[in-house]
Amino acid sequence: MKLLLRARLQVRLCLAVALVFFCGAIHAYADTSELEYRVKSAFLYNFTKFIEWPAARKRADFVMCVAGSPQLHAKLVETIGDKENNGMPIKFSSIRHPGEAQNCQLVFLGFMDAARLTDWVGALSDAAVLTVSDDSGFIEMGGMIQFVIIDGKIRFDINQTAANRSSIKMSSKLLGLARNVN
Fold this sequence. Notes:
Blueprint: H1 2-49, E1 51-52, E2 62-67, H2 70-80, E3 84-85, E4 88-94, E5 106-109, H3 114-124, E6 130-133, H4 138-141, E7 145-150, E8 153-158, H5 160-165, E9 169-170, H6 172-177, E10 180-181
Parallel strand pairs: 2-4, 2-5, 5-6, 6-7, 8-10
Antiparallel strand pairs: 1-9, 3-4, 7-8
């Protein structure tokens, strides 16, 4: 009887330890995602300071759009809020289709399968819209800036050829901060 009670106690203790570990891992993951979205939001805002769009793309408002990542959209609004870009108020839009990006100066493409991402990049390739994503292979698909995580830090690669094709000029300072430029 004592042995049975002891075994049950050990099982319960193991389950309690596992539960605490699991909950802690979920909390740590949530914190990491929160921090990651905040850092990416700051990067997106700072990219705009080092990029020049063609005169035809300049409007009364600077519009940052997000497709496929409602968490990043919410974090952009929270983090950037009422800031400006070259005297223009920054507005935010969540979009679902490439055609909705015509009013955007910057589009972040998140959580898409490769075929859908390729469709978006193709549709925006000549639109003078800065395209940014964290999906692997984005640069090779013709995207302009791809976030990468190296040793727990967010870095970025730049496809200058794609930006030039869209008449988007990136400053040498931004190019110097990139991990890779092609």
